[in-house]
Each structure stands twice: as structure tokens, then as C-alpha cells.
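Recap quiz, item 2
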Amino acid sequence: MSDSASSAQTFRAIDVIRKKRDGGELSRFEIGALIAAYTQGSIPDYQVSAWLMAVVLRGMTRGETAALTDAMLRSGEVLDLSGIAAKKVDKHSTGGVGDKTSLVLAPLAAVAGVTVPMISGRGLGHTGGTLDKLEAIPGFHVNLPVPEFRRVLEVCGCAMIGQTAEIAPADRKLYALRDVTGTVESPYLICASIMSKKMAEGIDALVLDVKTGSGAFMKSEKDAAFLAELMVETGERMGKRTVALITDMDQPLGNMIGNALEVVEAVDVLRGGGPQDLRDLCLELAAWMLHLGGISKTVAEGKQESAKLLASGKALERFREMVELQGGDPGVIDDPKTLPQARHSQQVLSAKDGYIASLQCEQVGTACVILGGGRERKEDSVDPAVGIVLHRKVGDRVGVGEPIATIYYNSGSRVERAQQLLEESCGISDSPPSEKRLLIHRVIGN
Amino acid sequence: MSDSASSAQTFRAIDVIRKKRDGGELSRFEIGALIAAYTQGSIPDYQVSAWLMAVVLRGMTRGETAALTDAMLRSGEVLDLSGIAAKKVDKHSTGGVGDKTSLVLAPLAAVAGVTVPMISGRGLGHTGGTLDKLEAIPGFHVNLPVPEFRRVLEVCGCAMIGQTAEIAPADRKLYALRDVTGTVESPYLICASIMSKKMAEGIDALVLDVKTGSGAFMKSEKDAAFLAELMVETGERMGKRTVALITDMDQPLGNMIGNALEVVEAVDVLRGGGPQDLRDLCLELAAWMLHLGGISKTVAEGKQESAKLLASGKALERFREMVELQGGDPGVIDDPKTLPQARHSQQVLSAKDGYIASLQCEQVGTACVILGGGRERKEDSVDPAVGIVLHRKVGDRVGVGEPIATIYYNSGSRVERAQQLLEESCGISDSPPSEKRLLIHRVIGN
């Protein structure tokens, strides 16, 4: 609380806090100076948390959101992938349960001719994370140094790594602060966090998958649409073609939840099979990646091309190549038994006849976390083997005593609570529920 | 940002932050736990600053404000003055320019039979502080230990000291944080800060002087009235008779601004003289102190009694007694020349004929600060000798070349800027301005 707290040339943190508190629009300079000073450690957490709360409650204009994204992006390095001739396109999801699309999309878009420099996160709360899924593959390295990341990209057109220290350090510091100060829930801050990291990947275009429903961060379609529009406009303002699909996360995506299980299901899709909903979403997202990457003239053409590459096994071969290049055991593709296996399993049986009306997605995700498949706190380690396989999805018929799901577990003390949550998550009705679209809405940049 | 940041039994700071962020009403337990944890240092500044910003933007209910006041009060000691039979009544002003009423009121109410345990503050920004004025008296001690404070009270019925470490430590910590996080400007937080310290004085009743106008913290009457009502309700909820007067601070109070000069003018009033506006306000405030202290049946009676005690010289004698008991030189009462004297003086002359239409109060206060008579930062020391004497007030006629004010200064490098500010502060019009009431409004508790 010394004076140094609010110094640095003509910029004073206290003035920026007050301006936002009073509903003013901050200039690019003010936002840039605040983020630079915080990243350097020359303004304290307590000033930034007050500012963050003012942003949560006062909001930001589109210009402020882009300026914040830009300031966070420029707090670190931007990958220079200009040496790679192909268009660089990434996909980002706001997070859900059973969402293993990244594992399918990176090799699928790469084999079509797009370069996919994918930097992903870990699971937190009830949602899974791509890095945790990849690490279920024995030997797979997600922490490649940037030159090695670039080499894998050059060789096979896709690479999947974790956040590096060089990329958007402001976001890491801000996110840690937001997490403990009740300032996570702001579309402006969420947008800047996501977009600053994605723009640092040196991409030409971005496809966003904004989830909505009981398993999503944005529970309502309205909130999801707002965030989607904000991210698309921010991406376009930063000169990148950006598209957002708003997709359903009211029940888990696909049938398998849990890290090793999700690798198995992703491989099924890459082999041309897999559950319909997962396959459909992969084709939709891949089509947009191919279209924005200049490979397909239309989205419809991109979808056809993607379906062909799944059917031919070419996408799967590219996945195999990437796994090998990143140190993983490609044997898991041919024999899922070489993935970590849970020691025990137990079925969840239906207590009555009827139709599955709902599978409360956050509860299913939390059941997987309780088994050890996710983390309640950042420091927690993850058990790759555990998880849940759903035998029924929303709309399916079920008879009394028939299995709804199978739980794969290693710790007997945890299975009971997981079972209870799964039973609670599942609503059964006498008549079939109204059908829900998987793809709810598209937001397309200019 | 560790987990310890949000632990402690069933109370989690993050939950309290989120609840206030979302516009919820906090319970007495939640507010109490937050303030207790912060005072003990078991939750960090960055969580409390986020919560403070949420309070600034979401507001508080009357119940929350009283709970916050109570929690801050209970962070430290409450003086036990039950050994003194007389009613204990204090007066608090929200701060202004030339406001030396406390120096008059403490001995005046004391000689009438009320006990006045007055704990005051220092000047900050453009406003003066009672402690700085008292310290202009050679030898006067404002930092009496509590037993000595009690002894002075018992002997002469009034004593005037500075904040002690034992009283409301939560307020000291919170105020320092609010000062650097843009969270000062909230009537709820201002109310809790003022009332927690006043309630800790062990008083039976409180008279509040809420200033409004260009020299006040609350520029608008509406904001002043809101704060006044909030403080009165909070005081009454805590079982103390509380009254607020909303009074004009659109021009300085009295004619003298500066620490030693204000002692001179207070002594003038105590001697039965002094400028009309200052004398009127002292009588109004004293009347309420006497009425709430059970000395006068009505406020009108209290005013008559107070006027008598000024005319008879009894109030001045009580002031002399208090000055002596607190180590000060009572000679200053008989010979103002024994107060610190500035080496130089300079007149501010009117550039035209007309009526004084305004004396922008914040500018006049700032001129005094520039001369060295106030502090821009808490660490600054104060020059007791410097200041300004106004020869004209709003509504007075002035001819071209006639003096509006005299500046008393010690540093030639500062006088020019002070002179310029005084000239700017003074608006002269051809016709007399409409008259303004000094007492704008009263808020009386149940």
C-alpha cells in the first residue's frame, strides 16, 4: 500500500480503477499500462483485484475487450509460424464433459492440409482437459519446448502441447487472482483470457466451440451467444478469421468420460466409427477449420472431405504419427488394452422403465472427478484409468434393471458417491423428451 | 493466492465476495467473519479489495451497514466511560475548510454539563483536521494514553485526542486499502468507518455535521442527505441517540483557514465573538449536544444556554483548563502572538467591483495545503503558522483594488500558486447572489 503502488510515468493504477468503477471506457493506453505493470509486478494484487471486480460489474466495450486481449497477448511471446506455408488454424472449446474433439480434429485437419498448432489446458472442476487425455497415452509428452513443437508441426501438420511460460504470462497471473477473488465470471475477462492465448499461437484463423447447457460454463444459450459474439468480434478486430459454434453440453458428448476412455473413443471416431453426436460435432468443426484454412471452398465441402479422411483411415494414421513424434506409444491405437485400465467396474442400473429425459452433465463430470479422473484443485493429480461409459443417452429407452452406465474405478471408497451422483444425474420419463439440436447456433466473423 | 486465502471454519472469503458481487445481502455472521479474518491477517488484501469494490458498486442494506459498523467496532476496544455519571456526547464532522467547531464545542458542551470524549483526525487533502489545529498550540498533546484521556475527561468534562491503536483497528487497515483501490467513495463504507470509531468512544449520543458543497466530500445535497440518514439509522440501530445536521460547505466556515489562525478564531467564538456563520453553527451543534445529553429539554433551550456560556466567558475558561490539562500553553488564549506566526503576508486584491458570488471551497483549502498548512500525503508534516484570512465572504460587496484575503506564508516559492488558486476560487458578480442557508437539513433518529 505504498506509493509505488500507483506510480509509473503518467499512468496511475488508482485512476484506471476509479474510471472503470464509475463506468468509464478505458483507453488502449490505460489498459496496456495496467496489464504491463501487473505482469512486471509493479502494481500489487489488491489494486488489480479491485479493478477486476469493477470490470465484472461494469462490463467492457468491444474496444476495451480487444485492447485487454491485445495487452495480455503482448505480455509474452507470439509464436512465429510464418515459415510454415499452410494456413494455421486452431479450434478452442470452452469446456465440457466427454469432449474429446481436439484429439480427432488436430490430425483430421492436418491431413486435409491445414496446420494445427494446438495449445491446450488441463481439466478443472467438472470439465475434462485435452492435456490430461493425451497424457493417458503412455510416453506422450505435452510439454514440448517451442522449437520441438515447431518441428512436430512441420513434420505432421499438427502438434498438441500445454501452455508455455512464454505465452501470455499476464493471463496466468490474472487467472490465479480471478480464481480467488470471485472475478472469474465475466464474459469480457473470459474472452480476453481465451483469445490472448489463442492469438499467441501465430494462427491465421480460429474455430470456437462455445458450449451451453448443464455441463457448460455458460449454462444459458443467451450467455453462450454473448460470449461467442464477443470472441468472434475480438478475433476479427485482431485480424484473424474467427467463427464460433454454439453447441449443446446439456449431456456428455459421446459415451465415454475419463481420460484413457476418451482416447479410445477419439480413436473410434478417427477410424470412421464412434458415437453419432461426437462424430457429427467433429465433422462440423473440422469443416469450418478446412474452410477457414482455405482447403474447402464451402463448409459443406469441408464436411465431405473430413468424412472421407475419417473413412479412409488417413486421419487415424496422422494421429499415430503425431503420437509417435510426441513420444507416445502408438500401440494404444491398435490395442486399447495398453492404455491404463481401471481394476474394477460396476454398473448403474435403471430403477424404472422409460426414456432417458436428462443426464445432468455437471453431475456426470463431477462423478468422474470423484473417481479421480479430474481435479478439484490445480495441484491434484489425475488417474487416467478411471471413468464412466454411458450405455444410454438422452432420448434412449431403458427398461427396469437395464444398465445406464458402467463406472470404472480403482478406489472402492469413491465409487459409492460417484454412483449416487450418476443416479441423480439421470432423469427418466414416461414419454420421449423433445429432441435437442447438437449445433445450436453459429456466429461468423466478417 | 494459496488455499489458506479462503479458509476458516465454515466461512470462505470467496463465497462472501461472490454473494456481494451478485447483489446478495450478507448476513451478520458473514460480515463479522470477513472483518475479523482481515483484522487478524488471515485473508489477504486482494480478496478484501475485490469485496470492497463489489460493495461500492452493489451497495449494502441498512442491516449490512450496521453489521459492518459493529464488526469494525468490535475489531478493537470500546472505551468504558460508565464511571462518569454525565451523559457522554460527541460531535463528528465529515470534514471541510475552516471548520474549527470542535475546538468550541468540546469545552462549551462540557461546561454545560455534558462529557465530551472527542477522538479526532488529521487533515487530508483540502480539508483541515482538528488534531493539526490543536497541535498549533505549543505543548498540546493529542496522543494521550487512554487512562490519561479518562482523567482529563473526569477533571474538565472534555478531552480531545487522536485515534488510538486500540480503537477499531479494522478501520485503519480497511481505510489504507480503500485509499489505494478506488473504494473510498461509498456511503456504506464511509458510514461504517465513521460510526465504528465514534461508537468505540463509549458515548451515549452523537451529533453529526454532514457537510455539502464545493468544499465537502459529498458535493451534492442528495449524497449528503443519504449519508446522513445512513449514519443516523446505523447509530440508532446500535442503541445510541443520533442526529445529523446537513450544513453548507460551499464556502469556508468562518474567516480563517490554517491551523494557528483557526485556534485564534475558535477562541474568538469562545469569548462570545467570532464570525456569524461559525458562531451560528457552533450554537446549533452545541444545542443538539446539550439536548441529547439531557441538559436542555429542547434544542431552543440548548441554544440559549450555549449562547449564555459563550457570553459569560465560562466556555473559554473550560477551554483554557483543557489546554493546560493536555500540556498546552494557555497563554495563547490571552495573546494570540504566542501561537506560531508566519514570516510574510500578502494581500489578494479584487480585480473588479461587485459582489462575491462564490468562494470555491476546495480551491481555498488547496491553497492552504500548498502553503504547507495541510498535507497532500499522510506522511507530510504541517506548518501551523501559515494560512489565509478572508476579508470578504459570499454576498459581500467588494471594490476594485480592495482586499479579498490575506495570505500568511513562510515559503516564497509557494505563495504564487496559492494566490492564483484564491483568485480562481473567487467569483464576482454585478448583483448580489441569492442567500444560502448554513443549516440545510436535519436528520433526527427515533
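The first helix of chain B runs from residue 13 to 21.
Chain B has 17 helices and 13 strands.
End of item.
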